[in-house]
Amino acid sequence: MAPIRNARVLFNSVPKGFPVPGETTVYDTTQTIDLDTVPLNGGFLIKTLVLSVDPYFRVAMVPVSSSGIYCRIAGFGVAVVVCSEAPGVEVGKHVYGHTILHQEYTVVHGLGALQLMERHPNLPWSVYLGAAGMPGQTAYMGWKEYSSAKAGEVVFVTAGAGSVGSMVIQLAKKDGLKVITSAGSKEKVEFLRSLGADVVFNYKTNDTRMVLKKEGPIDIYWDNVGGDILEAALENAAVHARFLQCGSISGYNSAQESSKVFLLVCLSITLHVHGVIMAHLPLMKYLPEFYATIPAQLASGELKYPEEVTRGLDKVGDVILSVQKGTNKAKAVVLVAEE
Amino acid sequence: MAPIRNARVLFNSVPKGFPVPGETTVYDTTQTIDLDTVPLNGGFLIKTLVLSVDPYFRVAMVPVSSSGIYCRIAGFGVAVVVCSEAPGVEVGKHVYGHTILHQEYTVVHGLGALQLMERHPNLPWSVYLGAAGMPGQTAYMGWKEYSSAKAGEVVFVTAGAGSVGSMVIQLAKKDGLKVITSAGSKEKVEFLRSLGADVVFNYKTNDTRMVLKKEGPIDIYWDNVGGDILEAALENAAVHARFLQCGSISGYNSAQESSKVFLLVCLSITLHVHGVIMAHLPLMKYLPEFYATIPAQLASGELKYPEEVTRGLDKVGDVILSVQKGTNKAKAVVLVAEE
């Protein structure tokens, strides 16, 4: 068979601001491939079926070398195997992963980050890039791992009409929560109602703070947006609220505020932050074991403790001052009387 | 028996800046009490033995009424019962709680927030205000509930010589962690070494960032301080780090930065913040159940999904732009080829 076109998309130059189709990215049709004779060298040839285009692409649009040579685009995708010399990777099987090139045909050596995937007979492959793929999995795992959701609680989901947000909303409804969610268009608001969300509003035409004040406080906040809506969520958070920072990307590029840096770190390394105060800790869960073990260990010297004892109720004022100034040497206690 | 002195400490006026002993707080000896004839009215009379002086006292030093009448000071303390008409509260028993007045004798009606307490024979009552009391319990419960500590991990504890910090350090060593900790004096540094901490430094004479860069990254940060040291900890945090914000009080009074507001909210309502990205989620724990359930529910329509399919590899550049601008209507996928 004669060589055929093997079209691809190339990342051609670094965008100043938004990417420019045809300039920062180029659709290139000059490349050809002969499907019968292309050397596989123990690998396999795939035909790309469907590709995902995600927000993170923009972050990857940077110079890849000091020589200014740019590169092919890869992302989440599904492809079918059309020729193979690789054991276990038969023709007709499908592969899924985040390293699929934006190119019609590709020779692959070893599965690497790709995995063999079977499709549900009633689902198109495209869904495996959304609700049944990385975004849906992020929603599913993040919800199960971090939400600590309980029936009757209130969750607020931003960008609810996205592939992550819409999955979170539906998982929350299955778990018996009251769901508040927002989107930026009439169509998306209608879609959100169809998901069964309890309170749906267009954040462009409604005051988020008013909605949350009326419908909150929030036990769980799933954040795909960040910025001012995050601040509004903070102002309406319940005690022991869980904030799941999944995408606070908007505005990060120019952000200077510490709170954004803080949240960026939370997001990028999956930082877990917990407020710790006695009033909100589960006393019944821990105090019996605390009293059963700790005093004896303190008495035996197995555990040490710092203490600065001042004698006399008349010294309380001085001790208060030393604690405020931090000049006390250890835990300050005032001995008022012997028995 | 004749009436005897019943000295007390009164909160007399709101401090401008630091409290002033004898002025903002007054030791008052004018009050008397007759221990034999004081009416109990079904309550009990306690003699104060030991009182705790804590940093939070300053926060309570505000006008209690618009008429400018100020009040007695109460806090954590231990007292002994000297007379009683209350069933179950026998003479000679001890009570502990955060409502003990700074006063020699007090008539109490009902235990309320007080609890009957027995002392370990080898521990003075003062320890029940520190390591065996509220600070020790905060450390114990916070560590068990939120640290998710694993042997071999690295924890950084600020204000390690305090009653909270020193307990955290010792719990961390018992759990097999490497402990980095800081204090502000030579004596405190020596005490920290005696606790078995692995890396001890004086933050006034050492660069915290240098220490953490060399000895980190940090898996757990127990923060009693906040401010610049918190920033240094953030810069040296490991993936999946847990930040336990127990006291970031320093500097809050004048703080304007959002990060401090954010952390103040985390602390005051015990907010839990989790970064959520696919790369740090436990795939092996959830993906089998995800694939076993979600695709079938999407196929049956039990779960809905948003999707915007564009046909043709040549449209990738346009789709990239629409995703960056947010003009896409749903999860963006590009259909490259049919099988």
Automatic annotation (TrEMBL), chains A, B:
Keywords: Oxidoreductase. Residues 25-334 form the Enoyl reductase (ER) domain. GO terms for molecular function: oxidoreductase activity, acting on the CH-CH group of donors, NAD or NADP as acceptor. It comes from the Eukaryota. PANTHER family: PROSTAGLANDIN REDUCTASE, PROSTAGLANDIN REDUCTASE 1. This is Enoyl reductase (ER) domain-containing protein.
